[in-house]
Amino acid sequence: MYLNFNSNKLFFMFILFFSTLISISSNSWFGCWIGLEINLLSFIPLISNNKNILISEASLKYFLTQSIASINLLFCILLKMSMLKNFEMNYFISIMINSSLLMKMGSAPFHFWFPNIIEGLSWFNSFILMTWQKITPIILMSYYFNKNFLIIIIIMNSIIGAMGGFIQLSLRKLMAFSSINNLSWMLSAILISENLWMFYFILYSFMIMIMCFLFNLLNVYFINQLFFMNINYLIKLSFMINFLSLGGLPPFIGFFSKWIIINFLMNNNFFFLTFILIMMSLILLYFYIRIIYSSLMFNYLKLKWINIMIKNKMMFYLNLLSFISLFGMILSTFFYL
Per residue, what are the HEC states of the chain? Predict the structure, then answer.
């Protein structure tokens, strides 16, 4: 992916990564809050661009929603410090802190800002929002979560993420709802251990990276653009592998991470939660397969205004990463057994 980063963009990118390290290494809630604020103030210059009205609108919406979540988090932190001995109040405060962090990561039922903002971003910024921006809130949530409340949130994420993608024609919104569904698996992993979450998050980021780079390279933003493209079948095969891997279909690498989480959930007696996650993954796979089938089977039109410059070297690397997704499951199966 070819990006013309100037020095300011690189500076804000460095601050973005540094702010996450501040939050996750802090000894106090106040330090965590400061890290979240620095993260917010460094991400807005990355996404803002005066040439595009949608990006300006998205950066304003992002600032407002994140500010509301930060104010709520700071209020809950101060409330917790003043009411340490009140156990009933602590239960309420834990739910409020969890809600603030869920809003920051774009989780259901606080997800309404997430698809609308991603619709106005570039593929690179969408990739950052779907991956890196989730790290801090999830790690902070693992320190102080309410188990019963978190199980309800996981079920809501799974259902809304699966159902929301049905009616979407925009690929960015579809990937946003897919991210909400995958967030339910990440939160399920947090219930068990941070190492399990880290393993799932790395594999998920790997799959999302390939998808976003591929969409950016082809300059594709809507589903119908996949049908009328004069592109070779190797690229469409790469789409198919990555979509199915993201949906969690064996023998792709995306299934391996979900398989491990299912095993741990069953060992910890989360049977109903496991059932919901599996059923919603099937719905997610349904509309992924619908897109793949349409893009492979529809006859494309050779229109004069479609002119896609694809660098052979870049496509080779993307196809190589896609086939790693295919063969990684076979290797990891033997390793796991």
Answer: CCCCCCHHHHHHHHHHHHHHHHHHCCCCHHHHHHHHHHHHHHHHHHHCCCCCHHHHHHHHHHHHHHHHHHHHHHHHHHHHHHCCCCHHHHHHHHHHHHHHHHHHHCCCCCCCHHHHHHHCCCHHHHHHHHCHHHHHHHHHHHHCCCHHHHHHHHHHHHHHHHHHCCCCCEHHHHHHHHHHHHHHHHHHHHHHCHHHHHHHHHHHHHHHHHHHHHHHHHCCCEHHHHHCCCCCHHHHHHHHHHHHHHHCCCCCHHHHHHHHHHHHHHHCCCHHHHHHHHHHHHHHHHHHHHHHHHHHHCCCCCCCCCCCCCCHHHHHHHHHHHHHHHHHHHHHHHHHC
